[in-house]
Sequence to fold (495 residues):
Amino acid sequence: MEEENKRMRFDAMPLHPDVLDALDAMGFEQATPIQEQAIPTILRGKDFLGIAQTGTGKTAAFLLPTIDRILDTEDNGKTKALIVVPTRELAMQIDQAVEGFGYYAKVTSLAIYGGGSAHDFSREKKALKDGADIIIATPGRFLSHLTLGYVDLSELQCLILDEADRMLDMGFLGDIMRIAEKCRDERQTLLFSATMPDRIEELDRDLQKEPEVVKLALSKPAEKIKQGAYILFDHQKDDVLVEVLKDRNVASGIVFTSRKRTVGQITRILRKAGIKCERISSDSDQSEREEVMLGFRQRKFPILVATDVVSRGIDIDNIELVVNYDVPPNEEDYVHRIGRTARANRDGEGITLVNPDDQQRFSRIERLIERSVYKLDLPEKVGKGPEYDPKNSRRRGGGGGGRKGGTATTGILEKEAVRGSTVRNTKKAETIATVATPPTLRTMEESEFDQRTDEEWLDQLGPESFRVMRQNGTERPFSSPLHETGQGSKFFCKG
Fold:
């Protein structure tokens, strides 16, 4: 309580009265540590790099001073701030936050994200032409609009990258740099990230000018979260998961998996067991994701099966249980995942299913959180599991270990085929790696080619492929991830 009393109050900050009125109406009085350090710096116009985990108040840390700055500029309908985020859910959430924080200031905002129809693209195009004070966008979708030449960034004051580490993990570095190139040099650049890998430092050097850097230590999971782990074999996971969910009978829980293809598998298993659930992943289309998230918030179903698309940056209240179907890819993601529960002083539970291949990774998580997670007894009906011995546990082999029906190269080829890039083979391949036709592609009649607008083509192809395939552009040299591979392959035209 004493620590809380020491925190800075918002009304002690030099924020515009309209912003303070909105904070008062929303019941916000004291700043969080990241807000306390970020807001005065951003108000002074300095670049800022903030490293802080989800749930620390990063959104308000950059939105409040940004709205304040916009109120000091001419209201001419031109965009003053661009916020780039990794997912459509986060874009929508920040858009809602702008509506709250900017309620009395009458600041306008526009969320731009992929996954919609050609009609949605046209609607976004019109909105961008009309202008908005703040644009919140996912990189690929915004770059698609930017490429067509009607987005006016001539008066942009601030470029903000939120969840920057996540965007780099998702392969958006190239898109981010191309967006930054289109922004004014005389701008303020703000970077916010949950972690500080080397690539974030590189991004900082490329985009920022003498930023103030604030790193908040990664908080350990809340004490109210009861953490447990089942040490098991892969074939035992489904039965244990069903048992856990039936035994707890929670009103609101999330099952996380690191693999998109596993989301559907888990959903089918749970429904077969009579457990009501819905799923969400990066493959879900826009309307489906919005509908599922709304239904989950409204408690229309108790269990959400998801990839890490909802593990960071998304506020969902009253989560009672988080189950990690597999160990998260890095230690920080574990904290973010189970941090979905036990919020607002409520109790919560985090359960992780650990197979032999993941034991070493899970032991690193235990070192990070500085505690040994309690090892739960397996249900009798699933049989005996392996011993927990991370030092001697068998490690997954190289290449495509664990992938069914393919190799590591196949996974790369799938990605490259969808991007529509070509491969420069310098060696003779002895083995031909075949790729199944990507499910997002379909065969079109010849007549359809002439009926599509540039906007529709851009939405399907993405900016890079659009430039090459529809504007007589040239592929950037050495841009293919397969540039130095000698593997032969079978490719599909993205058009």
User: Anything to note?
Assistant: The chain has a mean pLDDT of 79.
